[in-house]
From TrEMBL:
Residues 204-409 form the Peptidase M48 domain. This is STE24 endopeptidase. The keyword Zinc applies. The active site is at residues 275, 356. CDD domains: M48A_Zmpste24p_like. It holds the Pfam family Peptidase_M48. It comes from Maridesulfovibrio ferrireducens. Signal peptide: none annotated. It is a multi-pass membrane protein. One of its GO terms (molecular function) is metalloendopeptidase activity. Binds 1 zinc ion per subunit. Keywords: Endoplasmic reticulum, Hydrolase, Membrane, Metal-binding, Metalloprotease, Protease, Transmembrane, Transmembrane helix, Zinc. The lineage of its organism: Bacteria, Pseudomonadati, Thermodesulfobacteriota, Desulfovibrionia, Desulfovibrionales. Zn(2+) binds at residues 274, 278, 352. Residues 33-201 form the CAAX prenyl protease 1 N-terminal domain.
Length: 412
């Protein structure tokens, strides 16, 4: 048996089974008793509803992930990649255009297969639990915008990668690395002004106590922002959130209208203090640096496999091409990707604790953030008792009870 065929089949299957096991453990960790900390925030009905929501999400993820894994395996075993490659090649264009056609076909095919799951999640599960506020028009308009945006940005990125691997010789991986880093940073810089407004309306926060307190906090902590905005998150969901985006002089604070509705002024300031903490503590720079290093390693490793005949034989390919090699390497990289995500999540959870600490220390009001976490957990029907293994494997944020316990230590 082709060794690459075995590794990829085993990796995809193992990743799927690992997900099934972790979700089974997570379901088993659901406790019928409301944690003492949340009495007064959750009533019996809401707590039962949050557990039903978790169970629904687990069942949906089990079915969708298993189905998509089976489809990928069947597509591979039945020569789907070869058929798609022949189709793209028959247009008679050069390597770069052929590669873009290949990727466009694969992306559209994947999205069409996953479309029923997206519709079910949005209009059945999220609708049932009172979260969904979108309609079919908005849903499909988002799809179209995503296609256009993905086509432009993805086309630029893929064209550069295909061009460098075609012409730059043994150092093509380094040129690809540099190109991706430059384009990615440029996108982050323009995203607040040109990309994010395509999906949400950004309205400058009106004058008043909230804007004054946010501005004063940012000023006191040396955090320069270009604006504070409210976005129409309620257009799609009742879930609340807040974030800041961009860097340099393009940093924006964005508050979901649902967040402003649910939290007090001090609680909102505490949430934003947490987000600002990520920047002040260097978390964003560290994560960007880690991503840049990881990207370089991926391109270096990729350069050893793009022309590997045995790897292409594992997929039953008639021709060896750069564009197909990119996909095959991504599949081969699956086990490494899973391991790296575990380490990345662990680092992220550590950063979340540190950002909570920053918020508690700078606002001098740890209970404001605790109150916000409790309200957001209730409104989002969060799972209050996730299984430790599931947290280890999937969570980029610590469980809310752990965060509250940590914040209370600042008032001890």
């Amino acid at each position: 048996m082709n060794i690459y065929f075995f590794i990829i089949i085993f990796s995809l299957t193992a990743a799927c089974l690992l997900g099934l096991i972790s979700r089974k453990l997570n379901r088993s960790a659901l406790s019928p008793e409301l944690p003492e900390e949340f009495k007064g925030t959750f009533d019996a009905d809401k707590y039962r509803k949050s557990q039903d929501y978790t169970k629904a999400g687990i069942g949906f993820e089990n079915i969708s992930s298993t189905f998509m894994t089976l489809v990928t395996l069947l597509f591979m075993i039945c020569g789907g990649f070869n058929i798609l490659d022949i189709w793209a090649t028959n247009f008679g264009y050069n390597e770069i255009i052929t590669g873009l056609i290949f990727f466009a076909g694969l992306a559209i095919l994947s999205d069409l297969i996953s479309l029923p799951f997206s519709l079910y999640q949005t209009f059945v599960i999220e609708e049932k639990f009172g979260f969904n506020k979108t309609n079919l028009k908005t849903f499909f308009m988002d799809k179209i915008k995503g296609y256009l945006l993905g086509g432009i940005i993805g086309g630029i990125l893929l064209s550069g990668i295909l061009l460098f691997f075609s012409l730059a010789g043994q150092f093509a991986w380094a040129w690809c690395w540099l190109f991706i880093v430059v384009v990615t940073l440029a996108i982050q810089y323009i995203a607040p002004t040109w990309i994010l407004p395509l999906f949400n309306k950004f309205t400058p926060l009106e004058e008043g106590e909230l804007k004054d307190k946010i501005g004063q906090f940012a000023k006191n902590n040396g955090f320069e922002i270009s604006g504070i905005f409210m976005i129409d998150g309620s257009k799609r969901s009742t879930k609340a959130n807040a974030y800041f985006t961009g860097f340099g002089k393009k940093k924006r604070i964005a508050l979901f209208d649902t967040l402003i509705k649910e939290l007090s002024t001090d609680e909102i300031v505490a949430v934003l203090a947490h987000e600002i903490g990520h920047s002040k503590l260097g978390h964003i720079r560290k994560m960007i640096l880690m991503s840049i290093i990881n990207t370089g390693i991926v391109f270096l490793l990729m350069s050893f496999f793009l022309g590997n005949k045995d790897l292409f034989a594992a997929f039953g390919m008639q021709n060896i091409s750069i564009h197909a090699g990119l996909i095959f390497f991504a599949l081969l990289y699956t086990p490494v990707s899973v391991v790296l995500s575990v380490f990345s999540n662990a680092k992220s959870r550590k950063h979340e604790f540190e950002a909570d600490n920053f918020a508690a220390e700078t606002t001098k009001a740890p209970f404001a953030l605790i109150g916000a976490l409790k309200k957001l957990s209730a409104s989002n029907l969060s799972n209050l008792t996730p299984h430790p293994f599931y947290v280890w494997l999937e969570y980029s944020h610590p469980p809310v009870l752990k965060r509250i316990e940590n914040l209370k230590s600042h008032n001890a």
